[in-house]
Amino acid sequence: MKLYDLTQPIGVSTPPWPTFKPFELKYFKRLSTERVNGQIVTTPNHIGTHLDSERHFWTAGRDIASIPMKELFGEGVVVDLSDVMGDYDIYDSKMIEERIEVKEGDILIINTGYHKYSWDQPEADEERYFMKHPGPNMEFANWVMKKKLKWIGVDCGAADHPMNTVCRKLRPDLAKEAEKHLGDSLDNIFSHKDSRQFMHTKLFPEGIIHAENLGGEINKLSNKRLMIGFFPWKGVDMEASIGRCVAFEKE
After folding, report:
1. The whole model's pTM is what?
2. CATH number of 220's domain
């Protein structure tokens, strides 16, 4: 069995989701005086490779600890859209199914190519990573529900399009840039009554959650079917959790 780590490293330089507090790491014991090293970590949940639970956008939803491991591990696919995705682009289900068969109940990992702009990469670009990455349309969300996917993973800052998140209000200058690129107003593009962050608000009540900020060895798995797992903390009352995402391929 060959393992592929799809996790981004995390440290004090890792940027959190915009407006969230940063990751902090400090020593409270040192070998020189206490004869042992001890550290304290203070972190938001939405930083680095992490899994959102239903509780993140749904008060009655399950916390991280309530999600059975059998729902976080299983057969799935890694689809590579990186050759057709650019700043602000939108993808749909057709683009996925043109490249690989997605079965009912699969785990779906999407390689948009934007992990190359992650903080730890040679082409690191925090603005492009969070504010300009590609995202799905409403048709994609409806398709996900029809397929009854277990969960979804993306290699960028959010499973939703950045201009369908708080990023639009934070950067009105980039919102105008996105409208110019897409050839339509964002109000028209995201005009459905359920449009607001629909990958969160529409899918979480259906039990379909997602992992964000994937990366690692994702480029080695372009358009492959294999076993995939996400391993978060067993966090009671946690609405999200940092974790490791791993793909397993039979040799």
Report:
1. 0.96
2. 3.50.30.50
